[in-house]
Design goal:
single chain, alpha+beta, 2 domains, six-stranded antiparallel β-barrel, four-stranded antiparallel beta sheet
Length: 243
Amino acid sequence: MSGPSEPLFRDEPYLQSCEAEVLAVNDRGGIILDRTVFYATGGGQPGDTGKLLAACGEVEIGATVYGEDRAAIVHVPTSAEKLPEPGERVQAVLDWERRNRHMRMHTALHLLCSLIPYPVTGGSIGAEESRLDFDIADAGAIDKEALWEALNALVEADHPVTTRWISEEELAANPELVRTMSVKPPSGSGRVRLVAIGKDGEIDLQPCGGTHVLSTGEIGSLALGKVEKKGRQNRRIRLRLES
């Protein structure tokens, strides 16, 4: 059995490395640390990649996921040829460029969500391209040019991005905070993390466990793809970072 992994990325998303102790190596070679800067796959955001600097050398990490109980964060190596031992101290180092693009993309998707007053049916974050799906019957309800202008205006305004916690009871009393139809915020811990864009969340406010930039200006210029029809009422909007 291994103890929980402290998710340093939750409160310190700009932390690029950390020292940690190896708690366990599971039967599939997954490495569990007592603390980590590696984001684990969830909420449409991919898990981080990078490397662990250990006594056996550099261990390349090709994915990061949660363990079955979601308390442990598992670092999945690209090879099982050399692995650190339980109890060993290692240095966990992110592929920062990839992570930073995910942070910019994730915040950009929150802006997109703030501009489209329809429920979100799905989404995916990538370093090059991301998407959100919306429950919209009429594709003509979206003016792509106006949406692109509004989106980049929010970026250029450099609104602050902050986080805070509320109780599960507070979330239950404010169901409008949840925009996603298929993915609900994790429950059972007694509290829920909110991501707020703008003063007091005036631009966007919703539950989210992902990593974000500290201000919308960090996102950079955005490009919109075409609005795609994915089912009778499902419309997909793709988003790209231009640099």
